[in-house]
Amino acid sequence: MTSKINAIDCDVHVNLPGTHVLLPWLDDYWRNTVTDREISSLESISYPPNAPLSARPDWKNAQGQAAMDLASVRRDVLDRWNTSIAIINCIYGVHLVFNIDMARVFARALNSWIASEWLDRDPRLRASIVLPMQHPDFAVEEIEFWAHDKRFVQVLMPCMGEAPLGQRRYWPVWAACEKHGLPIGVHAGSAHRHPPTSIGWTSWYVEDYSAQSLGFQSQLASLITEGVFQQFPKLKAVFIESGVTWMPAHLWRLAKFWRGVRNEVPWVDRPPFEIARDHVRLTAQPFDAPEGVVTMDRICEHFGSDEMLLYASDYPHWQFEGDAVLPAGVSPGLRRKLMVDNPLATYPRLAG
Ligand code: ZN
User: Fold this and answer.
1) What are the tens digits of pLDDT across the range 38-89?
2) CA angle 15-311-188, nearest 5°?
3) How far is the CA of 59 from the centre of ligand 1 (A)?
4) Domains (ranges, CATH) in the chain?
């Protein structure tokens, strides 16, 4: 079975043409709310549709939109790279709304749309359950609703939400994830409850996008220092579209100061690097290292592990030249690990 798998793409995006496609999964009250209030779109400013990073130009249709239909995803991802399995991460702005009841019904409708419009139509597709993290009870409810469907292989939320993800309020969500074999998928992006940097709002998109790694640093520190992985020893977190080079340096820094003040967090019973190696994974796009100077093998040396990186195209985001999803110089053995072995070890539901 495993030998037949060619590539598992761990970050593929699909886009909604608008909120109107969710109407079939809303009851009368919410359908009227969407139409009366003219809620036509929940686009996040984390991915402005016209920003070059948001879509490779030749992947856009005549209307300038990308990743809107199955034919495009088949042509530009599944067939293009001989992809055996692709995990859909839909980052429509369910996380943006402040009304927790609206977040709850929009998440259910969005996951229903993903199941019926994508998963039902191509056996190579898998997906993440989009969670309404505005209320942990509703996030748990969403996990329990979809858990029977093994095509959903992880849960999904933006990196920058309302609070650090290690905090106790989220532990019921992590308990449900562990129970059902669902890694926590944390994708670049923000609910915009806070500025994307710790020094305030930025002027430019390039600042915002570059600062995503700062959010991931804080989430990594929160998950480790709050003891999430001691409490849920089978849990894994996948940092998606975070870039990869920030993590070794941040873990070196975290480990340095953990040694000095670890009496503050005695439940962190081993160096943060060891915990991350066991529980944290990263998708390999964008690969934010200078090409030809620092190869992926070298990055793995920094991690002290070749099991942490997962192959991903990040379609339709424009993160690499031509079709070079993996940077040059990746050894064949590591290539196979990134594209097949590591994803299978990360997502237990792919084995079914
Ligand atoms: Zn992505």
Assistant:
1) 988 887 777 887 888 888 889 999 888 899 999 999 999 999 999 999 999 9
2) 50
3) 15
4) 2-351 (3.20.20.140)
